[in-house]
Design a protein that fits this description.
The protein has helices at about 20-35, 40-45, 60-65, and strands at about 1-10, 10-20, 45-50. With about 70 residues, it is an alpha+beta fold. The protein has a three-stranded antiparallel sheet with strand order 2-1-3, with helices on one face.
């Protein structure tokens, strides 16, 4: 299984676990449709990134990455 970060432009970020990126895409489609956000799904207003679990990293939403941690 792999972990993916999903960035829905301008609204939210979330993470999911799926065996392949294709399956992650299917799950995102189901999630957006169930949430009533079919516009984002149809327009492709999201990005799916596979995270590398062999590297240390802090998982936080894209919109918070520009914030200082100070």
């Amino acid at each position: 299984m792999n972990i993916y970060e999903v960035d829905v432009h301008g609204t939210e970020n979330f993470y999911l676990v799926a065996p392949t990126k294709y399956r992650a895409l299917e799950l995102v489609g189901d999630y957006l449709n169930d949430a009533g956000n079919t516009a984002a799904w149809q327009a492709g207003n999201f990005v799916i990134r596979e995270l590398n679990l062999s590297e240390e990293q802090i998982l936080r939403p894209e919109k918070c990455r520009c914030c200082s941690i100070a």
